[in-house]
């Protein structure tokens, strides 16, 4: 598996990189997953170190975890423990969903935009001059082609509040999201 281990404004030593590779390889081997790429980013938040890890699986799904601690090794260990718990929890579901899938998840290209927020910070206080939002950034993103169950699982694995996907059974763009009451919502236009 390929790894990208980096730090945001902190130096990452060779010993930590070896530790990260060894631990993640052990987790992946234990659950017999098929990873293609792993990304681990270390940063600092006040007095704590923060570790964010993402593992891309060959099925098209991603597992994401985050951990923090006063020491950098402990931050990674917390992150690795959460990653292992996620993968263990969803191992059966991953196997069940992908047993019938003979090919990897298809990804469609799409544009993603970041819109400028209200400049004065007040919402609804004044009428906007124009209804056209200001685009701050434009990026390319991928939309996976999944079943609804796989989309919910991907959203939970990634820890995301919402996931846009192409429904395999209907070939339409759908959305799953976490509701305020803790349930999952599904938009099928």
Automatic annotation (TrEMBL):
Coiled-coil annotated spans: none
Start and end residues of each Sigma 54 modulation/S30EA ribosomal protein C-terminal domain: 132-185
Subcellular location: Cytoplasm
One GO process term, biological-process aspect: negative regulation of translational elongation
Keywords per UniProt: Cytoplasm, Translation regulation
Gene3D superfamilies: Ribosome hibernation promotion factor-like, Sigma 54 modulation/S30EA ribosomal protein, C-terminal domain
Matching PANTHER family: 30S RIBOSOMAL PROTEIN
Subunit comment: Associates exclusively with 100S ribosomes, which are dimers of 70S ribosomes. Interacts with 100S ribosomes.
Protein name: Ribosome hibernation promoting factor
Organism: Pontibaca methylaminivorans
Gene giving rise to this polypeptide: hpf
């Amino acid at each position: 598996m390929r790894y990208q281990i980096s730090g945001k404004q902190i130096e990452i030593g060779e010993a930590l990189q070896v530790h990260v590779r060894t631990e993640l390889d052990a987790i992946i081997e234990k659950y017999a997953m098929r990873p293609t790429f792993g990304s681990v980013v270390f940063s600092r938040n006040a007095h704590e170190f923060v570790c964010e890890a993402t593992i891309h699986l060959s099925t098209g799904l991603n597992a994401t975890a985050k951990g923090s601690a006063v020491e950098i090794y402990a931050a990674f260990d917390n992150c690795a423990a959460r990653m292992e718990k996620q993968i263990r929890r969803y191992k059966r579901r991953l196997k069940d969903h992908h047993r019938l899938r003979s090919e990897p998840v298809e990804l469609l290209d799409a544009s993603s935009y970041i819109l400028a927020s209200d400049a004065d910070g007040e919402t609804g206080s004044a009428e906007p001059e124009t209804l056209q939002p200001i685009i701050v950034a434009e990026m390319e993103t991928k939309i996976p082609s999944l079943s609804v169950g796989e989309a919910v699982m991907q959203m939970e694995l990634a820890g995301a509040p919402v996931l846009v996907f192409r429904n395999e059974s209907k070939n339409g763009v759908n959305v799953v999201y976490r509701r305020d009451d803790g349930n999952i919502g599904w938009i099928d236009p």
